[in-house]
């Protein structure tokens, strides 16, 4: 890897999913730690030159190249910065302020999901809230309303523990557990307006077209949380919310569908820890399809439906 870190570059330190990040790019939505750049880091994010291509890459597309022998991943989105990911180091080549805003968003989504795949964590495309000592996950494709539902639950007092990507691992005593990443939710302006939130309480990027970060002011505490339930939001809206339980092999198949960037998982080579996590989720965690209601005004009804389900599952 080629890096051009200036020794005077300001570094921000974060704790994300139990890992210490030192980043030259601030991460909106994450509270930096007080210890600056003096502690050991699991992940380092720095500015530098990123090559156009990877020599001897086994996998190549227009926007992605992977070299499995040393785990290097080159991401070249059609717009914005380029990224080189390997081990615990991410190099970002950004041209301007908008590139940096895009990089801040990508670091906690695409790049974080890539690191999870490399390190044997199962990243789910989901948001998570704390219910008692457990976590409830709301998964699904981009744009189906995961964060809006999590925000509606936060308004009822259920603290967010992750948003966008939820890393899952196995605990010998507790089974599948979610690793907390952030207490803030990324929301589009229309979601902020639809939920009646105070726009001044949402930290929007200076660049237009990007989501803002909302901190509901709830403190869930830190540490892994056993996953008590997983809800997969369907893309189709309905007049009334609806839950459909899944069983058997459908559960494991659904987990594969809501894994973050499953193509990356396959290209990197399936980590030996990944499949056991999927199997444990399918065997030990209740999974439901969730048909979200049309319109923000019906989200309180959806929350009440979830409460009743939690009571039936013994979560509440």
TrEMBL record:
Domain of life: Bacteria
SUPFAM superfamilies in the record: PEP carboxykinase-like
UniProt-listed Gene3D superfamilies: P-loop containing nucleotide triphosphate hydrolases
InterPro entries membership: P-loop_NTPase
Protein name as annotated: Hpr(Ser) kinase/phosphatase
Native organism: Novosphingobium beihaiensis
């Amino acid at each position: 890897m080629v890096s051009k870190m200036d020794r005077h570059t300001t570094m921000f330190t974060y704790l994300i999913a139990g890992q210490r990040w030192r980043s030259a790019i601030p991460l909106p939505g994450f509270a930096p730690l007080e210890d600056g750049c003096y502690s050991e880091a699991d992940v380092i994010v720095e500015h530098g030159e990123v090559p156009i291509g990877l020599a001897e890459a086994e996998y190549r597309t227009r926007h992605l190249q992977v070299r499995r022998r040393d785990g290097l991943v080159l991401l070249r989105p059609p717009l914005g910065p380029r990224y080189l990911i390997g081990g615990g180091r991410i190099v970002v080549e950004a041209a301007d302020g908008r590139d940096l805003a895009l990089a801040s968003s990508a670091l906690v989504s695409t790049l974080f999901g890539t690191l999870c795949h490399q390190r044997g964590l199962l990243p789910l495309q989901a948001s998570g809230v704390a219910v008692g000592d457990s976590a409830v996950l709301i998964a699904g494709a981009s744009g189906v309303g995961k964060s809006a539902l999590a925000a509606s639950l936060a308004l009822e007092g259920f603290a967010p523990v992750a948003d966008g990507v939820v890393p899952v691992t196995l605990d010998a005593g507790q089974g599948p557990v979610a690793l907390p990443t952030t207490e803030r939710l990324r929301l589009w302006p229309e979601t902020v307006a639809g939920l009646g939130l105070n726009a001044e309480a949402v930290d929007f990027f200076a660049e237009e077209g990007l989501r803002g970060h909302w901190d509901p002011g709830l403190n869930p505490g830190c540490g892994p949380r056993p996953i008590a339930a997983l809800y997969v939001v369907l893309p189709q809206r309905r007049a009334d919310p609806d839950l459909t339980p899944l069983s058997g092999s459908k559960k494991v198949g659904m987990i594969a569908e809501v894994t973050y960037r499953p193509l990356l998982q396959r290209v990197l080579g399936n980590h030996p820890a990944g499949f056991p996590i999927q199997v444990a989720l399918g065997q030990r965690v209740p999974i439901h399809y969730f048909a979200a209601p049309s319109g923000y005004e019906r989200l309180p009804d959806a929350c009440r439906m979830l409460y009743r389900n939690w009571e039936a599952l013994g979560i509440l």
